[in-house]
Design brief:
288 residues; Porin; eight-stranded antiparallel β-barrel; 12% helix
Length: 288
């Protein structure tokens, strides 16, 4: 009788142990399955910052200094072929420039804008030599002076080359139109004491193109400070016909030059981008 009682107690303990084991496994199984279906995310490498995509319309304004250069001077005549004139070169004084524009930032790497620019007066000084019957020494030398002014309108495209510590280097190109004006044009002969002038202001439009490089600095999410260099070719410029005052005939000479400039600019861009989202009111704790 005692042996039967012991056997019943052993069987009861074994059943209780089996039931407790199955109950524990049932409780653990969902958690294990969740761990299998949702593995923890990989650790973020130190120093990694996700790239922020930015796009939108922007306004820009720039100021700077232009250093125009003239080259390839030629002359044409109204009445006859005239004397052969050799270009002896010329210089121009620096210009103050300012522009405004509107553009669009397509993504983190490409943007484009349209700009209108005003360039202040620059003094043009040039020289030439020629031979004709009025040159007592065989060769005459003329000097030319004028006031040069330019309006520049460009469509520009830029490639941003990445951002490091809020600094974004870029390169760009532009095409458009330059409106060049020459006024107060004078022609003084150093050999015959002759003097002439081109009355009025000569204004011509010409094809223009530009190449640019520089960098921008993010002051805020919306404001960018821009510093850059630009080479701009502003095409051919021409004077009005020169009328002589002390010589019997100066052939109504018209001067032509090619104009380019090396520019340094400092600008500001405002991007109409959405403000950054505010931080959450309460910290978010995720459990894996």
């Amino acid at each position: 009788m005692l042996g039967v009682l012991k056997e019943d107690m052993s069987m009861g303990c074994l059943k209780a142990l089996v039931i407790a084991s199955f109950t524990s496994l049932a409780a653990i199984a969902p958690a294990a399955a969740a761990d299998l279906l949702l593995p923890p995310p990989p650790p973020i490498e130190p120093g990694y910052v996700p790239v922020e995509f930015s796009s939108g319309f922007y306004l820009r304004g720039d100021i700077g200094e232009g250093n125009p250069q003239i080259r390839n001077m030629t002359s044409t005549y109204l009445n006859d072929p005239g004397p052969g004139i050799a270009d002896l070169g010329g210089t121009t004084s620096a210009q103050v420039l300012g522009d405004v524009g509107v553009g669009y930032q397509f993504n983190n790497y490409f943007r484009a804008d349209i700009t209108g620019e005003y360039r202040s007066d620059s003094k043009l000084v040039a020289q030439s030599s020629y031979t004709n019957i009025y040159c007592a020494i065989g060769t005459c030398y003329d000097g030319y002076t004028a006031s040069l002014k330019t309006g520049l309108f460009l469509l520009n495209g830029y490639v941003d080359l990445g951002t490091w510590y809020n600094v974004t280097p870029y390169v760009g190109v532009g095409v458009g139109t330059a409106v060049n004006s020459l006024s107060n044009y004078t022609d003084t002969s150093f050999s015959t004491s002759g003097y002439g002038a081109a009355p009025g202001t000569a204004t011509r439009a010409a094809f223009a193109y530009a190449a640019m490089a520089g960098f921008s600095y993010s002051l805020t999410r919306n404001f960018k400070l821009d510093f850059g260099y630009r080479y701009v070719d502003m095409g051919r410029i021409s004077s009005n016909a020169i009328v002589c005052s002390s010589l019997p005939d100066c052939h109504y000479e018209t001067q032509h030059f090619h104009l380019a400039s090396n520019d340094i600019r400092l600008g500001l861009r405002y991007i109409f981008a959405d403000p950054a989202p505010p931080p959450p009111a309460f910290p978010i704790v995720e459990k894996y």
